[in-house]
Amino acid sequence: MKFTMTGSQWVGLGVLLSLLIFAVLGMMFSPFSISQQDLNAVLDSPSAVHWLGTDHFGRSMLARMAHAVGLSFALGVLCVVTSSLLGTALGFGLCGVVKRSIIS
């Protein structure tokens, strides 16, 4: 069976890849920490220094969004791996119980 992707699947893949690239590059190249405060730049609008502006504590919104997207991806992967391991273990356990009940 040949696997082909539809147009909406390509769009979804593009969105996911662009978010992943944003998270990785934003964390690597942002000169600001997610917790670094600049009280002189409270609620600044987007500028050359803070591309997406700052929040009410003067923290860079670009750095905070990049870290948030990265955290979301990491938590998604953690949930998938955990549920896969748990489901596989339970499946093999139930398979053993069923085999023992059939044999005996």
From TrEMBL:
<protein>
    <recommendedName>
        <fullName>Oligopeptide transport permease C-like N-terminal domain-containing protein</fullName>
    </recommendedName>
</protein>
<keyword id="KW-0812">Transmembrane</keyword>
<dbReference type="Pfam" id="PF12911">
    <property type="entry name" value="OppC_N"/>
</dbReference>
<keyword id="KW-0472">Membrane</keyword>
<keyword id="KW-1133">Transmembrane helix</keyword>
<feature type="domain" description="Oligopeptide transport permease C-like N-terminal">
    <location>
        <begin position="10"/>
        <end position="43"/>
    </location>
</feature>
<dbReference type="InterPro" id="IPR025966">
    <property type="entry name" value="OppC_N"/>
</dbReference>
<dbReference type="InterPro" id="IPR050366">
    <property type="entry name" value="BP-dependent_transpt_permease"/>
</dbReference>
<keyword id="KW-0813">Transport</keyword>
<feature type="transmembrane region" description="Helical">
    <location>
        <begin position="65"/>
        <end position="98"/>
    </location>
</feature>
